[in-house]
Amino acid sequence: MTALICIDSIQIRQDTSGRYCLNDLHRAAGGERRHEPSFWRNLQQTENLVQLLSTTGIPVVVINGGNMRGTYVCKELVYSYAMWISPEFNLRVIRTFDAAQTNNVPQTLPEALRLAADMAEQNTQLSNKVQQDAPKVAFVEHYVDAAGAKGLRETAKILNMPEKAMIDALLRDKVLFRQSGNLLPHALRQREGLFTVKTGTSDFGHAYTQTRVTPRGVQWIAERYASELMGG
Asked: Which domains, and CATH codes, for the chain?
C-alpha cells in the first residue's frame, strides 16, 4: 500500500508506479522560481544520475494534461532535488519519507477509505489517458515498424502535430537544445536511441548538422505528447 506523503500540508502526488511529483515538492519548498524543477533537471549531475537510475527502471515520467499533470521521479531523484534546494529542505523531505515508510498502514478506517479513494481516482485518470491515447499510439507503432530516421518536420507531419509546437515542447522539456542555430538532442536522449545527428557537406560546399528522429524516437514523442499535440 502506498503511503500518502505530505510536506507542510501539501500532498505529494504519486503515479501508479510510485514516483513522486516534483511540482508538488517545489510548492512545498516555497515555490520560488529559482527552485523550479526544470532548472535542476538541466544540471549535468542530474542527467548523470538519471542515466545511472535508468538501468533499473524509468526514473522520470512527465504527464501532460489532466489533474495528474507534472513531472514524476523516483525517490532517489526526490532526495537529489531536495538537496539542490537546500540542506534544510532535504532533511525535512528525508524525515517525512522515513516517517511515511514506517507508518504506511492507515491507523483508522477513515484514513484507509480516504487512501483507497485517492488511489482509485489516480488510477482512473491514468487509465482514461491511456485509453484516450491508444488509437494514436497504435497508429505510430504501425507506422514506425518499417520506417527509418526522419527529420523533425517530417516527424511532425507523420504524427499530425504542429511542427513549431512539437519543437517548442521538446525544447521546454530539455529533450532538444539550440546551438549555433541548430536543434540538437541532449546527450541522454541520444544515448537512449531516440535521435541521431547527421553531419555532412551540401552540394554547395556548406557544412550542415541535422537532428534525425529514429523510429523509437517517433514512438516516444507520440506517447509523451499525444494528448498535448496530436490531432484528433
From this structure: 5-105 (no CATH), 133-229 (1.10.10)
